[in-house]
Specification:
Distance between the termini: 41 Å
Bound molecules: flavin mononucleotide, iron/sulfur cluster
Order of helices and strands: EHEHHEEHEHEEHHHEHEEHEHEH
Number of helices: 12
Largest sheet: 8 strands, mixed
Strand content: 15-25%
CATH superfamily of the largest domain: Flavodoxin domain
Shape: globular
CATH architecture of the largest domain: 3-Layer(aba) Sandwich
């Protein structure tokens, strides 16, 4: 079986998961093409996602698309991957597996959104996966959420995903079912309802009102922010980073901020958001299960119920 995996991963966790998937699939005689579109000049500086994917993606039976959860949503550029896929034909497979990584707090509707987009692209969702990862927004806070994840704890889940893919794709095509409904796993609490209502842009305006600001007096011209930006917003002009990309906007991933050696970039999470992430907040409840494959199997279901009662 031939598999195409496409991933957008500003901080590298989703890419790490994709690489483990690739390794596991290859060891089981699947032919895998892994395409990481993060920081791709053609896509983000020339705005040619569709053309690029058409040129690069090789014929396959199954397509897996992965990206991070931002504000409970499937991140916008990861969404765009699925939106630009041609309808299935001889080259483009009709079977799909979306996967996400998230900071362990709220994956809310991310997998559901990815599944819906695959459905609109006339593909059949056969499985979906969420993997708990380090919450990158806690990198410079006093407390960290899920530091060093994904790690060994994720291996058996990714392995199980690959085994279930093999089991499903070995069935007669008429017996393969679309399991998209299983991605609607988040109950409607008021907070989660809020996330459903708020788009990613609105969220960014509320949580990072000032966005990213560069203090050019402190900047030493190293160019690291330009190299790290997942959507290629900046280029170095006269030795300083300048925002010249007309097509894309800042997604507030904080990669530039975390990598600036001169402390020249400010990225201020608002106080309410910091409190919201903090273990002291009443909203700070880790999602259960942390990592899972959907649809859950019977054993997973009972496990989930026990965790929820806790
Ligand atoms: C702007 C932003 C919003 C985020 N929103 C959420 C969220 O709603 N829930 C969550 O659990 N984690 C959230 N995270 C954490 C990321 O989903 C997590 O770190 C993910 O693994 C990042 O993927 P990547 O390393 O592939 O970029 C957010 C991170 C950023 C930067
Ligand atoms: S990473 Fe910091 S010091 Fe380096 S170019 Fe960017 S703003 Fe300047
Ligand atoms: S400017 Fe900084 S925060 Fe914004 S997308 Fe680029 S790296 Fe991320």
């Amino acid at each position: 079986m031939k598999v195409a995996i496409i991933v957008f991963s500003p901080s590298g966790h989703t890419l790490k998961v994709a690489k483990i998937m690739e390794k596991s699939m290859t060891s089981k005689d699947m032919q895998v093409q892994l395409l990481d579109i993060t920081r791709n000049e053609k896509i983000f500086r020339e705005n040619k996602m569709e053309q690029y994917l058409k040129e690069k993606i090789e014929p396959h039976d199954l397509i897996c698309v992965g990206g991070p959860v931002y504000a409970g949503h499937f991140e916008g550029n990861a969404k765009n991957i699925i939106k630009t896929l041609p309808y299935p034909d001889k080259k483009w497979g009709a079977l799909a597996v979306p996967f996400v990584t998230y900071g362990g707090l709220h994956s809310i509707i991310a997998l559901k959104e990815a599944g819906n987009l695959f459905h609109k692209s006339k593909r059949m969702n056969i499985l979906g996966m969420k993997i708990a990862a380090f919450h990158t927004l806690t990198k410079t806070l006093a407390f960290k959420i899920n530091e060093n994840k994904p790690g060994k704890e994720a291996l058996h889940i990714i392995e199980e995903l690959v085994e279930r893919i093999i089991e499903i794709t070995n069935r007669d095509f008429s017996e393969i079912k679309d399991i998209q409904k299983s991605f609607d796993y988040t109950p409607f609490t008021s907070e989660k309802f809020g996330c459903r209502l708020l788009g990613q842009r609105v969220f960014r305006k509320i949580v990072f009102p000032k966005g990213v600001e560069i203090d050019y007096d402190k900047c030493n011209g190293c160019g690291l922010c330009t190299e790290r930006c997942p959507v290629n917003l900046y280029e170095m002009i006269d030795g300083k980073p300048q925002k010249t990309n007309p097509y894309f906007e800042c997604i507030c991933c904080a990669e530039c901020y975390h990598n600036c050696p001169a402390n020249a970039i400010s990225f201020d999470l608002t106080r309410p958001e910091r409190h919201h992430l903090s273990p002291k907040s009443k909203h700070h409840k880790m999602e259960s299960s942390q990592s899972a494959i959907y649809p859950l199997q019977d054993a997973d279901l009972s496990n989930d119920k026990i965790l929820e009662v806790d």
